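Q: I have 144 residues here and want to know how they pack in 3D. Can you give me a structure?
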Amino acid sequence: MPIRSGSARWQGNLADGSGTIRTGKGGVQGNYSFKSRFEEGEGTNPEELIGAAHAGCYSMAFSNELAKAGFTPTSVETTAKVHMGTTDAGPTVTKIDLETVGDVPGIDESLFQKIAEDAKANCPISRLLAPGVDEITLTATLHA
């Protein structure tokens, strides 16, 4: 399996500094700052990138599990909402809400929900994040 990478450059102190963050091959690159991370400032932040990674991984895992069960999805669209909180250790990712919508011809609701939950449990990024996050929730909607 290939090794993936990302990089970041930060200049200045925490409150007034700024930086850039990018994926290894440059497919995603953005500016980030204290305001974009802990307030509502312009730019991106590590938590958004974690959310994008989780949503992408989950969508692929769910599509794969659906196909293995005999249902080829037309589409799976997922959003991951990453919640920041404060613990004794400081700022911490405390919760991730996965929200997915699948357009899956021929599947019934109960099987759709079961496969969605199985994909959450077995998605590599879910498995990576689960031990450090208080909760990963899932809302799965079958597009009719």
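Q: Anything worth noting?
A: The two ends are 37 Å apart (CA to CA). The beta strands are 6-11, 18-23, 29-33, 75-87, 90-103, 135-142.
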